[in-house]
Amino acid sequence: MEPRDDAVDLRFYLGVLRRRAWVVVLATVAVAALAYGVSLTQSDVYEAGADVLIGRQASDQVFVIGQGYDPRRNVQTEVRILGSRTVSDAASEAVGAAVSVRIVADDESDVVRVIARSSAPSFAARDANAYAKAYVDYRLGSTVQRLIAAGDEVTSKIAEIDTQIAALPATSTRRAPLEDQRAYLVEQQGRLEVSANLADAGGAAVLAEADVPTAPVEPKPLRNALLGAFLGLLLGVGIALLLEYLDDTVKDHTALERILGPGLPVLTEVPSLGGRREKVEHRLVVVDEPTSPAAEAIGMLRTSLLFRALDGQVTSYQVTSAIPGEGKTTVAANLAASLAGAGKRVVVVDLDLRRPRLHLYFGLANRVGVTSVLLGDVSVRDAMRRVAGVDGLFVMPSGPVPANPAEIMASSRLAELLGVLVAPIDLMIVDSPPVLAVSDAMALARIVDATILVARAGKSSRRAIQRAVSSLRQVKAPLLGAVLNDVSSDAGGYGYGSGYGDAPDRNPVPNPPRRRAPAPPKR
After folding, report:
1. What angle do CA 167, 185, 69 make, to 5 degrees?
2. DSSP secondary structure code for residue 491 in this structure
3. Which of the residues in the chain have pLDDT under 50?
4. Which residues pair with 484 in a beta bridge?
5. Whole-angstrom distance between the N-terminal and C-terminal Cα of the chain?
6. Beta strand 427-431 with 346-350: parallel, antiparallel or unpaired?
7. Other C-beta atoms lying within 10 Å of the C-beta of residue 251
8. DSSP bridge partners of 117
9. Among candidate residues 393, 450, 457, 447, the one with its CA nearest the CA of residue 425
10. How open is the CA angle 292-295-299, to the nearest 5 degrees?
11. Which helix (H) or strand (E) holds 52?
12. Are 371 and 408 a contacting pair, CB within 8 Å?
C-alpha cells in the first residue's frame, strides 16, 4: 500500500471548502437564523427546585444492626421511589393538575433536588414543593407501617421465647441464651415504639422549599442561535463535500493529471480573466496584455513546444478538447501568437469546419479559407492572412462552412494542403473540433505531429476527458499532454477570477477588425 499524503488530502479538503464556501456560509446562517426565529416564537419556561434530604429509615436502623449500610445504593433506591407513579399521582392530586418533575441526585450527599417547570413562575414552585412533600408523606406512611409490622413481629417472637423458657427446667443451661435473646427483643420493641412516635420516622425531609423564579430558563435565543450556527457549519461542510463528490468536473492540476494517466502531463494552467475587461472572449491576451498571468501561462506552453521542435521532427500541433466550450480556440490562437512572438514563423489553421471562430480572434472575415482552397476557388496564398502587429504569424480561416465537413476532413487533399502550409514555416497550429462531438479530431490526429487536449476547470467532466483520451489512443494519436484552461484562484492554480475561454459564437458576422487589415504573405 502506498503511503498516504496527508498534506495533499488537507489541500484537497481546503480547496473544496474554498470552492463551496457559499454553501457552508449559507447553511450556517440559515440554521442559526432558523434556531433564533424558533426561539423567539417559544413561550417562556420557568424552573423551580426543592431540596429533599434522604436519610436512613428507622425500621432499617432496628433490623440491620451490625450489618453493612450502602448510602449510595440507598439514594439510588429513593430516587427510584421519587420517580414512581405513586408519588407522582399523590403530587398531582395535591395540586389538582398533572405534575412532572426532574430529579437530580448527588453521589456525594443524601440530598436530591426535585425540579419542576411551568409557563407560570408560581406554578413551577408549587409543583416542586408539592412533589417533595408527597414523597416525604409517602416515606413517612410507609415507614410507620413497617414499624408497626416489625413491632407485631417482635411481640410474636417474645411470646414464642416465653413459651420455650416456661417449658425448660430452672436448672437448664438453655434458659440463659433464651433469656438474653428475649431481653434484646424487648429492647428493640421499645425502640420501635419510640420511632413510631417520632415525626421524622420516615427518614426524609424537605431541606429547602422551592422559591418562585424571577427569570425564565427557556427560551435562550442567543444560545440557540450559536448552537444552530455550529450545527449549520457541520451541515454546510457535509453538503459541500457531498456536492464535490457528485461533481464530476475537473478542478485542478492534480485531478487532471490523475485522469490523463502516466505519460501525459499537464503542460500548463491558463488562469481565467474574469473581471479584467468587460468582454474576455475572442481575445489575444498575449498581444493585448503580454505581462498578464494568462500570457505567462501560454508562454510556458510555448517554451515546452519549442523544446520539442528543436530537432525539427514536431512541427504541427492539433489543439482540441473533449467537448465544446472548453477554450481550445482561445488556447490555439494565443499559442500561435506567442510562438510568433518568440521569432518563429507560425501559421494557425481553423479546421473546425462546423463552428469556425478562429477568425474572430484576429478580426478577419471568414469569406475565404481552407474550404475555398480545397474547392479550388482561391489559392493558398490568397487564403492565408498575415496578422498585423505580430511578425511571423499567419492565419488561414476555415472559409465557408461546407455541407460535408467529415468528407473534407478525411480527404487526401486536406493532408496535402497541410503539407504545403507547413513547408515554408516553422510551426503550424491547427484548431480542430472537439473529440467527442465529431470524428474530425481523430482524423486530423493522423496528419499532425502532436495533439494537445484542452480542458476547462470547473466545466470539463472527468468522464468526458477519459473518453477523449481513450478515443485518441485508439487511433494512436500522438497525444502530447493537456492544458487546463480557466483556472480560478480557489482551484489552487494561478487564480485570477473566471470567464477566460471559448463561448459560442452567437453572431456569424465577424466583428469589425481591431487591427488593420492584414496583407497576403509574400511567398
Report:
1. 140
2. G
3. 1-4, 62-67, 199-201, 274-279, 491-523
4. 269, 455
5. 61
6. parallel
7. 23
8. 47
9. 393
10. 135
11. strand 46-54
12. yes
Greatest alpha-carbon span in the chain? 154
Q: Please state whether the peptide bond connecting residue 219 to the residue before it is cis, i.e. omega within 30 degrees of 0.
A: yes
All cell numbers assigned to 406: 467529415
What CATH number was assigned to the domain covering residues 250-491?
3.40.50.300
- Give the type of residue at 228: G
Separation CA 462–CA 297 (nearest Å): 23
Q: What are phi and psi of 346, to 5 degrees?
A: -130, 140
Angle at 284 between CA 283 and CA 288, to 5 degrees: 100
Cell of 212: 418562585
For residue 34, the model assigns a pLDDT of 95
Spatial distance between the Cα atoms of 37 and 205, rounded to a whole number of angstroms: 43
Residue 50 is classified by DSSP as E
Rounded distance between C-alpha atoms, residue 202 and residue 140, angstroms? 4
Distance separating alpha carbons of residues 457 and 95, to the nearest angstrom:
71
Estimate the crossing angle of helix 253-260 against helix 462-474, to 10 degrees: 40
In the prediction, which pLDDT does 490 show?
52
Residue 435 pLDDT: 92
Predicted pLDDT of residue 434? 93
Among 499, 435, 457, which Cα is nearest to 254's? Answer: 457
pLDDT tens-digit profile of 309-329? 666 678 899 999 999 989 999
Which SS3 state, helix, strand or coil, does residue 54 take?
Answer: strand
CA distance 138 to 78: 11
Dihedral pair phi/psi, residue 513, rounded to 5°: -60, 135
Distances (CA, A) of 370 to 126, 167, 361: 97, 139, 17
CB atoms within 10 A of CB 198: 13
Residue 10's Cβ-side half-sphere holds a number of Cα atoms within 13 Å equal to 3
How many alpha carbons lie under 13 Å from residue 519 in its C-beta half-sphere?
5
DSSP string over 341-409: HTT--EEEEE---SS--HHHHTT---SSSHHHHHTTSS-HHHH-EEPTTSTTEEEE---SPPS-HHHHH
Stated length of the chain: 523
Buried b / exposed e over 53-74, threshold 16 CB at 10 Å, is bbbebbbbebeeeeeeeeeeeb
What DSSP letter does each residue of 285-331 carry, written as one string? HHHH-TTSHHHHHHHHHHHHHHHHTTTSS--EEEEEESSTTSSHHHH
Q: Hey, which residues does 319 pair with through a beta bridge?
A: 431, 452
Q: Give the number of other CB atoms < 10 A from CB of residue 111.
A: 15
Residue type, 338: S
Q: Are 225 and 36 in contact (CB under 8 A)?
A: yes
Displacement of CA 9 from its chain's centroid (Å): 14
User: Please, what sign has the CA dihedral across residues 254, 260, 266, 270?
Assistant: negative
